[in-house]
Amino acid sequence: MGITSASDPPSFLTSFTTTLKHAVRILYRTVRSTAIILPWLTHLFLADLLLSFVCLPLTPLFPTTAYNLSSYLASSVWYSIQHIFTNRNNASIIVSGLSNLPPLPVDGREDGESAIVVANHAEWTDFYMVQELAIRQGMLGRCRWFAKKELKWVPFLGWGLWAMRMPLVSRRWVDDKKEMERVFYGITDRKLPVGLISFSEATRYTPAKRAATIDWCKAHSKPVPPGHLLYPRTKGFVATVSSLRDRAPHVKAVYDLTIAYANGKKFMVPPSFLTSITVPDLVKAGWRFWVHVERFSIEDLPKDEEKLGMWLEERWIEKGERLEGLREKLEAGDDWDALN
């Protein structure tokens, strides 16, 4: 039995003090995150109202004006949540590959390059990674995300997505032809600037889905992407490129984004959305964020649909190898900045 010094505090007092500190820390984070996120939620709600009751009715009569207004509203909402993530909560995002992209217009009044964007999908926080690149390229408000068609029935949110010309699709591209025509009309006929973004794996990565991917690829004689990736759905990508290649000459490129995370020594462990808005210092908490971009000219892509699908498969093989390189860097204790 150990001997307790008379100067040592009683064990119950030490336990109480530890519990109290933990409770105060939780209370502080709750109050702080509420004070930060409530104004943003109000901003989001007001933007949805304007999208639903101003932009949506304007679209049939003044489609370009409605599109520009919806882009401005979307940019304000997305920039605000990005500011919370990177500035208020100190998330440091490493953006690699910017030298692959064309320079922005000098006067800053024009949009950056319109492009089809594909990326791997790990967590909700992937949106921050894509938005960081979009901000740097002057295209944040022009981002249009492929989203689940069920969202269009959500009051205000669904109407806002519809007003913004978001592609609301199922996972059956044959059934989505009419929706694609609606979305692509503005891009092809009115030459609207756009960053058309798709998480090509169609779902977030999990170990169980990874195992299913390996089984499916083996059964269908498809290449298995290395590491922390799923097999990319090629039909949607092929349909998008084929529809825009000749009809939208201002959409000049495909941007292939590789998204990676780490928490301490744990690779590809992204924070949840709740963590991203409640932790006051994400760098101090051990999080790393990384996004790499490769640019491919659409005119250089295969015109044959089967070969175009294989082209996307090849990108996922390269993406997996890139992620494996990051994992090895992490295990060796090397800085990811060196990959820039």
From TrEMBL:
Q: What superkingdom heads the lineage?
A: Eukaryota
Q: Which GO terms describe its molecular function?
A: 1-acylglycerol-3-phosphate O-acyltransferase activity
Does the keyword Ribosomal protein belong to this entry?
A: no
Q: Name one GO cellular component term.
A: endomembrane system
CDD domains membership: LPLAT_LCLAT1-like (cd07990)
In this chain the Phospholipid/glycerol acyltransferase domain maps to: 115-238
> Which family is it part of?
Belongs to the 1-acyl-sn-glycerol-3-phosphate acyltransferase family.
Q: Quote the Pfam families the UniProt record gives.
A: Acyltransf_C, Acyltransferase
User: Is Transferase included in the keywords of this UniProt record?
Assistant: yes
Quote the protein name from its UniProt record. Answer: Phospholipid/glycerol acyltransferase domain-containing protein
Q: Check the record and name the InterPro entries matching this protein.
A: Acyltransf_C, Plipid/glycerol_acylTrfase
The record lists the organism as: Polychaeton citri CBS 116435
Name the keywords, alphabetized: Acyltransferase, Transferase
